[in-house]
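Closing statement on the 2-acetamido-2-deoxy-beta-D-glucopyranose sub-project.
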Amino acid sequence: MVNVLQLVLSLLPLSGFWDRPQSTLNVLHDAFVHDSVEPPPTEPTKSIAIVGAGSAGLGVLKAILDLPESIREDWEVVLYEQRRAVGGVWLPDPPGYHVEPPEVPETPLYPRLHTNTPHPTMTYPHFPFPPGTPLYPDWEAVLNYHVDFAAHYNLTPHINLNHTVVFAKWHAHDGTGDWHVEVHAQHGEDEDEVVIRRTFDHLIVANGHNHYPHYPTWDGTKGWLANSQQGKPARQILHSVYYREPEKFANLSVIVVGSGASGRDMAQQIEPLARVVYQSIRETKETAPDTTVTPKPPIAYLTNYSVIFEDGTELFDIDAILLGTGYEFRIPFLSSPQSSVLLTDPATSFNSSTAQTLTTNLRYIFPLYQHIFSLAPTVPPTALTFIGLPVLIANCPSDFAQGQIVAHALANASLLPSHDEMLNDLISRERSVSARGYDPYYEGHRLVDGDTEAQDYQDSLVDYLKKNGAIPDDGRKYVEPWRRASRSQAPLLLRAWKRAGKLGEQERWLAGIETEDEWADLMARLAEWQREWENTHPALVASTYSSPEWLYE
Ligand SMILES: Cc1cc2nc3c(=O)[nH]c(=O)nc-3n(C[C@H](O)[C@H](O)[C@H](O)COP(=O)(O)OP(=O)(O)OC[C@H]3O[C@@H](n4cnc5c(N)ncnc54)[C@H](O)[C@@H]3O)c2cc1C
Ligand SMILES: *[C@@H]1O[C@H](CO)[C@@H](O)[C@H](O)[C@H]1NC(C)=O
Ligand SMILES: *[C@@H]1O[C@H](CO)[C@@H](O)[C@H](O)[C@H]1NC(C)=O
Ligand SMILES: *[C@@H]1O[C@H](CO)[C@@H](O)[C@H](O)[C@H]1NC(C)=O
Ligand SMILES: *[C@@H]1O[C@H](CO)[C@@H](O)[C@H](O)[C@H]1NC(C)=O
Ligand SMILES: *[C@@H]1O[C@H](CO)[C@@H](O)[C@H](O)[C@H]1NC(C)=O
């Protein structure tokens, strides 16, 4: 099959390819679609490409397949995933894999990663983790969860693994248009790369945003790196996307920068092995709990010999600076030089009302309605959608809520408000972020009011569908009351689970827990058990860490 495709491609003059008659496209189409997909019996009425098989891509794929058969039976839904399996960030490096900057690894996952949120709060609705899963499982449980989800809902036939979307260009015509997409497929190490070029009506971007490292720029960095101390290994500055094993930092003096999940995890894991660990954080933030790392303010600049902090203090003997400084919102396949759909400009002076194209300033992609639908003058809202952009949110449930509104808007574009209404909605969202003292173009897709805003956001998407008759109104909110409650009790639950661990009682708590309701009940009982204990043992409350940090930087 692959060879047929290659042959066909090699016979085609590339320049004329896009205006091939439909019949030729079908030849190509049949030649590459996953073997187990039954080609639609008739010409597809709609073709949809999803990019990415992490939580976001799987969530929207399921939501589309959930549409009534009568609506979607002639749709063609194809998901492209560049890696060897589904799971996104939860899928580890391939065996023996190692990359050095500037190349970026496939995932930021490190072997000792455990979730920092209780898994029942992370789930797609009605699909709990398997019985016996510890409340804060390791990455492998989360990976398997995604694999199981894809298998259980029969998503796999739509998923093309080892398929990298290289570019997607929007060709507008007759008030609508289509996507010209190029995909590179690698079917095995010894096989040649296969180039697929074809068109789609809709593009759904679910490519994740924990991939392109954000580097702070400090004066003096070059000199500091070039002047390692005598008898010590070469100094290094390493972003958390490259962090894997704490052993690499044994006996070294390390500064961890940042107080998000990655900064905290690196500090916790390295501290027992390192000579000394400092954590450089902003005034309002906390150092990693259960450690004795020394807090430092943000770094001001470096000299050949030292690191100087904003309070003027100086450290001379540092061997490594580890950056938990987060990621940039980039989408290469939509941006120059591959495409001109997304303008990438950190210093852009455009805003949501003035932008001529979709724009990313590396922290924020705008203008988008509800973080999902393109409001750029160049691409219609249902032609280009994004899943998984919101930050500070439980991804799977949010991805599925977003997926539902996308699915229904693809089925019926009139479901969406008018372009002007959507743009006004966005501008008032940005104003409200400003009114709360934040810069909307810096905070970007962060839901700055935390869990309440994150839950309300998901409810509002689904309520909208109910109000407009797209899905039946069962009188319930999308975010279940137990999920709301347990997210707000997250720090308490983490302390409870740790205490249960010290008492050797975790297995007892997990015994017999199977259904979503039972998991919800388990969290409620655990929280109560911990609250009572903390009330009677205030001096013993293990950790002073008061707020969970949802930011995976
Ligand atoms: C270190 C770390 C720890 C985390 N811990 C937690 C936690 O404890 N709890 C929690 O709820 N969340 C956690 N998260 C957040 C996590 O990122 C989300 O939960 C979620 O898994 C993100 O899913 P996604 O699908 O949006 O992105 P990703 O998981 O990044 O998936 C995107 C997929 O798109 C693919 N892709 C990208 N570009 C292309 C292309 N051009 N062509 C084809 N495929 C492409 C990628 O290969 C990838 O598989 C953590 C994140 C990180 C980085
Ligand atoms: C994907 O690529 C990997 C590594 O080259 C290979 O082992 C695997 O068989 C490929 N999978 C598919 C579905 O082509
Ligand atoms: C810092 O180190 C660089 C390169 O090692 C050297 O060229 C430079 O002169 C040094 N600067 C100072 C102020 O010592
Ligand atoms: C760290 O130092 C200790 C004590 O000096 C030594 O025993 C150990 O081997 C060192 N570890 C590494 C990885 O260098
Ligand atoms: C966008 O920028 C223009 C021009 O600088 C300005 O007049 C307008 O108020 C801005 N709009 C928003 C919503 O920030
Ligand atoms: C599409 O949505 C609009 C607005 O909600 C509605 O009036 C119309 O009936 C819907 N069309 C179909 C075919 O469902």
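The pocket of 2-acetamido-2-deoxy-beta-D-glucopyranose (ligand 3) is lined by residues 223, 226-227, 304 (CB under 6 Å). With this model delivered, the sub-project is considered complete and its resources will be redirected to Aim 3.
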